[in-house]
Amino acid sequence: MLATVVVVVAAVTVAFQVLPGGRGQAEPGNVAATSAPAPASAAASLPPSASAVPAQPGVPQPGEFGPWASRTSQWLDIPLRAMNGYAQATVTLSKEQPECHLSWITLAAIGKVTSDHGRAQGGHIGDNGTLGKPLGTVEVRDFYHRVVSTPGAAGPLQLSPEVWSKWQRSASGGKPDIQNVDDAALTAGRALCANGRDLATDWWNGVATLEPAPVVLHRTLATMNVYGTVGQSAQPPNPAVLTAVDFAIDQIGLPYVWGGNGTHDADPGFDCSGLTTAAYASADIKLMRTADTQFRSVTRVNEPQLGDLIFYGEPATKIHHVGLYIGNQQMIDAPQTGQAVQVHPYRKPGDDYAGAGRPTA
What we know:
alpha+beta, single chain
């Protein structure tokens, strides 16, 4: 039975200021929800020139945010028109509600997880920011095949009727359109920042107002870490790494199963090394099957980067656990029996961290 377990965690300060996740205990097969600090500054995530863009400039055109938007959207496979919508909403609300600390990576992560930036069901965002074909509710099911998506949700950010009715706003000054990415991003941002919320300290509850399902929240958290890591980098990400990480994000919520290799087994689940093996297999990179053999066969690195493997145990004798690093001191792993694939910090006091390794080196 899916349940929410709240865990309060300490902030982790990084350049792009993305929230840390939390490690929580959960019932078998459950994802632990998290109440955690979030991005402390939207400005840190946007190019310096963005501050000169007027708060209400009308419909932003592709390329308005220049090389930053073009580069970042290509690296992350975010349609440029959607990227401009997320960035413009961030600029607008950072001026109107600076105490909210909204970041484009929050809006972009929600757009990715809910509708693949409007591309669900074959959709496409046009030059005017509006989907060519209206997008209704994109059904999301957990790994028990229960529908967890919000009934009546619509548009590129899958906003619920309640959220749209209460917070709708047009980015261009016309009639708000839930199918328009500029209007949807601005409306989502207003809901996130409602009632004086500071996303630097109340990110989890803010995003839960848009989509409360724990499995969706954890996928959004993971996507946000990846987007923040890539967005603040000066170098493009390795495509194989992004493929592996995206695969792991899609498995969030799947139960831990000892010896599990994925959904095609009799028991639909992963153990820790089964998850990392399958993640890199999706990128055509073959790993050894156990945590110990992976540790001894990949190139060791001092500081983990996106997609690196995180190992625990005694290097001289036995490595017993492995996870996949997603940036911002976070990893995705299949922790143990009774927990689901989830996001949490890769270090904690008293752990037996053994080091990191790079499958793509």
